[in-house]
């Protein structure tokens, strides 16, 4: 798990901050300085590169897939990292070949980082999901192997909520069908089964970032809002939480899904749930493709139970723009396409300029903070740990990061190893089986860093050690 180090250039490394570039928050002081002259003197005599945990930013290799926004790419390139950015996801064999080499991978919803892929990722330090969902990553496996995962928890929530509002009106007025008919040259002026949305009931399943935002927008347009969530949550406006999913299905004219992909949410809307829904109601799914049983939806629409549906997400999605969405990918694709009043969109709920720019900045900043400073704030699979930045007037300091199994007695052993140095500050936290320790130590000579690293790595609890200086 050691990023390669060119020890000659390590001496002149400086690290700047993307926060400064983007004016996103108050600028922290410069964090990691070049090693002091005494270290440089020691380095100057070395000929062969020596593998140590500290790295040069230029050595960090990053692979970005799925057209990560240029805002994110620029932040990462601005750090001096080597960045390769591809517009698509990759087939698993190609992904495995590439992931072996990189320290950081940036993905969106399409790339599956399962155990098989992560097992090959021998150099990987961190994953950036440039989206909300993290179900495409085996978070537990990653944590157990010291790989931290970051996402952008709400930068595209508004975009999704706005799309759903558009879809509610589009379905209620059968706009998709009327537009398709006009495109084919047919004038079909109808009002039968076309409705206003005022006074209708919107049932939101999952009242998190997106669901609650949608609640406010829908009420502003005169809808009544009810919601179902596994957690008891404060109702916004005059919306009302209902105790069960069945209650929601029985009462709602429009049902919209905003739950994460979890074992409990897979197939959450299937035959039994369609039976509970009102005749002539509508279903919208912009959460994850696994949440709705599509053959059951096809049946419910053919029978007239469901008057319209909007789907943005599917169990299997094509890898790239221009790819086909056919029965080869999902065996019911043609059935879906044959239905009327169904809106099919290619997973674009969060695809707006605003959302993608914001996500690019947020996730790239989290990656920079983690790579350069070891800060895990916002990580979805590691304990969150932060220490004040080291500053230029702390010349002989090093930051020790020790990711380890969460077992008794580790802190004592770590502090024995660090004991000869002054531990200025230290933080340790755990999440499940994995614990994360960060310690800033002073009066460290460059030669001592290898000893510290070797000693920590020799502990049976060790998952990954990094020393930043
Ligand atoms: N279509 C898109 O482009 C797009 C964009 C963003 C997010 N998403 C998807 O939407 C999902 C929701 O996003 P969010 O930001 O609102 O998430 P969130 O975590 O803020 O909210 C999810 C809510 O669902 C609730 N929940 C979990 N399990 C539940 C269950 N079994 N029954 C009822 N409620 C349950 C949670 O308690 C939470 O309140 C994401 O996980 C992601 O998969 C899709
Ligand atoms: O942009 C994407 O690929 C994913 C969008 C959305 O599903 C998310 O999880 O944020």
From TrEMBL:
This protein's pathway: Amino-acid biosynthesis; L-serine biosynthesis; L-serine from 3-phospho-D-glycerate: step 1/3
Catalytic activity: (2R)-3-phosphoglycerate + NAD(+) = 3-phosphooxypyruvate + NADH + H(+); (R)-2-hydroxyglutarate + NAD(+) = 2-oxoglutarate + NADH + H(+)
GO biological process: L-serine biosynthetic process
Family recorded in the similarity comment: Belongs to the D-isomer specific 2-hydroxyacid dehydrogenase family.
Keyword Heme: no
D-isomer specific 2-hydroxyacid dehydrogenase NAD-binding domain sequence ranges: 166-349
NCBIfam families xrefs: PRK11790.1 (NF008759)
Name of the molecule in the record: 2-oxoglutarate reductase
One term of GO molecular function: 2-oxoglutarate reductase activity
InterPro entries: ACT-like_dom_sf, D-2-hydroxyacid_DH, D-isomer_2_OHA_DH_cat_dom, D-isomer_DH_CS, D-isomer_DH_CS1, D-isomer_DH_NAD-bd, NAD(P)-bd_dom_sf
EC number: 1.1.1.399, 1.1.1.95
CDD domains reported in the protein's UniProt record: PGDH_3 (cd12176)
Task of the protein: Catalyzes the reversible oxidation of 3-phospho-D-glycerate to 3-phosphonooxypyruvate, the first step of the phosphorylated L-serine biosynthesis pathway. Also catalyzes the reversible oxidation of 2-hydroxyglutarate to 2-oxoglutarate.
Ranges for domain D-isomer specific 2-hydroxyacid dehydrogenase catalytic: 62-381
Annotated keywords: Amino-acid biosynthesis, NAD, Oxidoreductase, Phosphoprotein, Serine biosynthesis
């Amino acid at each position: 798990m050691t990023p390669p180090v060119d020890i000659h250039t390590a001496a002149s490394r400086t690290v700047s901050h993307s926060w400064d570039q983007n004016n996103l928050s108050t600028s922290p002081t410069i964090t990691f300085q070049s090693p002091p002259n005494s270290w440089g003197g020691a380095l100057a005599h070395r000929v062969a590169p020596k593998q140590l945990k500290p790295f040069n930013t230029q050595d960090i290799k990053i692979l970005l897939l799925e057209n990560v926004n240029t805002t994110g790419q620029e932040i990462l390139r601005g750090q001096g990292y080597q960045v390769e950015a591809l517009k698509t996801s990759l087939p698993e064999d190609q992904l495995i070949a590439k992931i072996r080499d990189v320290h950081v991978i940036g993905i969106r919803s399409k790339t599956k980082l399962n155990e098989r892929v992560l097992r090959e990722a021998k150099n990987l330090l961190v994953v950036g999901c440039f989206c909300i969902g993290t179900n495409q990553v085996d978070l537990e496996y990653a944590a157990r192997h010291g790989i931290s995962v970051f996402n952008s928890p709400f930068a595209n929530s508004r975009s999704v909520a706005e799309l759903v509002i558009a879809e509610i009106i589009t379905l209620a007025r059968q706009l998709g069908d009327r537009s398709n008919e006009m495109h084919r040259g047919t004038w079909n002026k109808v009002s039968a089964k076309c409705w206003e949305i005022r006074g209708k009931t919107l049932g939101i399943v999952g009242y998190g970032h997106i669901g609650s935002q949608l609640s406010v927008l829908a009420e502003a347009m005169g809808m009544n809002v009810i919601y179902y969530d596994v957690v008891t949550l404060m109702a916004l406006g005059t919306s009302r939480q209902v105790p069960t999913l069945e209650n929601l299905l029985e009462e709602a004219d429009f049902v919209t899904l905003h739950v994460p992909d979890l074992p409990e949410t897979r197939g959450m809307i299937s035959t039994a749930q369609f039976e509970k829904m009102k005749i002539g109601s509508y279903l919208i799914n912009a959460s994850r493709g696994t949440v709705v049983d599509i053959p059951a939806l096809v049946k419910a629409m053919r029978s007239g139970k469901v008057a319209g549906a909007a789907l943005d997400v599917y169990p299997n999605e094509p890898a790239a723009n221009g790819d086909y969405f056919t029965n080869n990918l999902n065996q019911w694709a043609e059935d879906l396409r044959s239905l009327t009043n169904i809106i099919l969109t290619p997973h674009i709920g969060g695809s707006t300029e605003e959302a993608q720019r914001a996500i690019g900045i947020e996730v790239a900043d989290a990656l920079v903070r983690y790579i350069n400073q070891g800060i895990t704030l916002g990580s979805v699979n590691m304990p969150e740990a932060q220490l004040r930045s080291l500053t230029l007037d702390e010349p002989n300091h090093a930051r020790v990061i020790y990711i380890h199994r969460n077992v008794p007695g580790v802190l004592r052993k770590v502090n024995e190893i660090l004991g000869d140095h002054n531990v200025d500050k230290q933080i340790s936290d755990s999440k499940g089986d994995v614990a994360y320790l960060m310690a800033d130590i002073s009066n460290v000579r460059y030669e001592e860093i290898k000893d510290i690293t070797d000693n920590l790595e020799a502990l049976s609890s060790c998952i990954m050690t990094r020393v930043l200086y």
